[in-house]
Amino acid sequence: MKKEKIIFAFVIFPFLLFPANLKHFRFEKAKKPNPPISQQKTKPINKNQTLSSKLEHITPTQDPVKPKSSLSEQELESLITDRRVQKIREIHSVFSDRSRPDRGRKQRPDFSRPQIRSINEGRPFRLKGEQYVQDQVLVKFKPTLSDPMVEVTIAAYRSKKLKRIPRLNIYQLQIPEGTTVEEMLHVLSRNPDVEYVEPNYRAHITVTPNDILFSEQYALYNSGQEFGPAGSPQQGQSRADIKAREAWVETKGDEDIIIAIVDSGVDMDHPDINDKIQSNGRDFVNDDFDATDDLFHGTHVAGIAAAETNNEEGIAGVAWNCKILPVKVIDDTGWGDYANIIDGIRWAADNGADVINLSVGGDVFSLSLQEAVKYAYDNNIVVVCAAGNDGGSVLYPAAYEDYCLAVAATDYDDLRVSWSNYGPEVDVAAPGDQIISLVPTWYWGPDSLPYAYGDGTSMAAPHVSGLAALIKGLKPTLSVDDIMYIIRYSADDVNSTNYLGEDEFIGYGRINMEKALVPIIITTKKITILKKLLLDD
Amino acid sequence: MKKIYLPFLIILMTLTITCLSSAQLQEEEGLFQNISIKPGISYEYFSRTISWDEDEYTSKLKSYFFTFNTEFEIPNGLSLALIFGYSFTNYDELEFRELPISLELGVGKIGGYLLGSEIRKSFVSNEDLVIDGQAQFFVYLGSKEEWEIPGLSVEGTTEGKSSWMRFSVGPVFTYKGFAPIYPYLYLGFNKLWGKFKMDQTIQDLTGSEDKKISGESSFSTSLGFNFIVTEALSFKAEGNFMPYKDGVDLGFMIKAMYSF
Known about the structure:
Distance between the termini of chain B: 37 Å
Largest sheet of chain B: 12 strands, antiparallel
CATH architecture of the domain at 86-122 and 254-517 in chain A: 3-Layer(aba) Sandwich
Largest interface: A-B, 38 and 36 residues
Strand content of chain B: over 45%
CATH class of the domain at 86-122 and 254-517 in chain A: Alpha Beta
Largest sheet of chain A: 7 strands, parallel
Oligomer: heterodimer
Number of helices of chain B: 1
Number of strands of chain A: 18
Radius of gyration of chain A: 26 Å
Shape of chain B: elongated
Helix content of chain A: 25-40%
CATH architecture of chain B: Beta Barrel
CATH topology of chain B: Lipocalin
Number of strands of chain B: 14
Mean pLDDT of chain B: 88
Structural class of chain A: alpha/beta
Distance between the termini of chain A: 65 Å
């Protein structure tokens, strides 16, 4: 009992999940210029470090700005302006042609807010129709076959040439009536003069939101584009992303699905999320019902999960239409005690949350915390937790593997980030390196857009929470276990070269929203053991 | 499924027994020589637009079937045919969104047995024109198949079993002026419905979906002809058009019959 009291006496530090390499969030000394991003290195925290030394690493101890403090507006304004990070200022300069008046600390920026239009009259696009054109095939003949002979060959198959694609020498053929594409493929493939033949497949649309910073969100769609702070852009591997665009064709989420962000609160005035807030939430730090963020962490996390999307502004959230329920359990220094977190989880579960995002964690096992996570789980709520960022073992509550999903972090090359915690409890991974999202409107001051890049499993977890919310909205009858299995089994095993199958670094793999949501086309019969043996022989 | 088939099977059996009993009576009365038995083979293809999930989605059902038919021609213009065969049915693009991991069929043809029956009765007959009433019923029982689910981080399979039924009834107008070729027009109420049960197993994740399908069209027009080659041998060919709100579904059938 005494031991438990001591454990309870320990405060935890969610900033561990928002680690030392939080280059864009770290509060800088006023006179110390921010180094270029390329020079900034990840600083994994040594496991043997003391709690206080970790704290030095991650908390803004030297920053005097505390929005709920007694400082005057003018003093705050001045301090905030001083600590603006140059790189972010450069990002903002891209949009500097927008005329925006000076603002007070929590004054909303003067973004032009065009009327939000709804794609496809608010309904998700559905893929319908044939996968390929039913009376056509594409054929490439061997280069040795002369053009007249190609014509003769086409005529011999009673087919009609519709088009020859220049340079590539691919012929689009209309097959004879009464013949199926499959039959034609079979017949043509046996012709020695044919290099290859295939159906004339049909492509389908994907959904690209019009949010102006969407191209910075490699996590959602990575075409190999440049992204990142100006002056130190990054370029990732094409399609090292969670396939959000493809998944949004199937669903953009249900307005009735609520993602609780149990964190430092959410800036409910932020123009890119204010319409998505379910209620003012609950503040367990100050014991009131106004879970306004006076740090930045919760706002950043909430934006990743469900920022207002397709509003020609800011970023896109994973779950376009889902709502955010802010629950404040972390104070403005980045600390929170287990009691508040436990109460926060309980409150979220009792107040309509369908998914709970916990980008917080501590080193110490606690029965009470486990019970709170189990309470949510028993209430059919998907609990998504960040694994931690010190390159060590998985933090709590992420380590309560029976009741939640523990999320590790990958980067823009689909590689596990070195600081991402690991262990058998890790279920899946999601991008957590250089993730752009919201910061409170007061954070950078009046001349800067309220967005910033952040690193950490804190940033990876809300991608998974967004996906869980989309699944829950699309298939409301599924159990919490089913949703967790879907997220695990639909993941891409991106480190299979070194660790085939489930492993302790990224679990089942980096999440894949398309496979989790869009119907997978099945084409192959299961090969029985007998057939396998025959084939082997 | 059995509940759906049963009434039709009972009807068919009753009709068969009735007809055969009738034949038996006639035989006893010395009329058996008037009954002719025509075995035959046929090949049929049809493509039907089907809707599912409360008509929210549509796709195509394509079926090819080979059948053996035995037609009993009973005096007074009544004939009954019993049909047995094998069919390949293609349900590609049918989607299962209620499964934990949604699936879309792209497996091609699925084999299965086909049972059917046809009843025909003449109502009007003169020198040039015969008007018959015709009813047809087919049941396709697809074999159980198991497929792999590609692209998952663990092995997963799904098992499907399908069936469909088709019922048509309507008048047949046969023109006798071009003997030995007898062209005809068949206007029918034509309904197709069925179900596809899919069971998914991906380690601990299991799910099942029972999908009901129904044909978009409920009316068909068939144009065909009977070619009486000899007294014993005849051929039949038919093209079907089934209009629905967004287009026309097509089908055709060829048949060869031999009379005893």
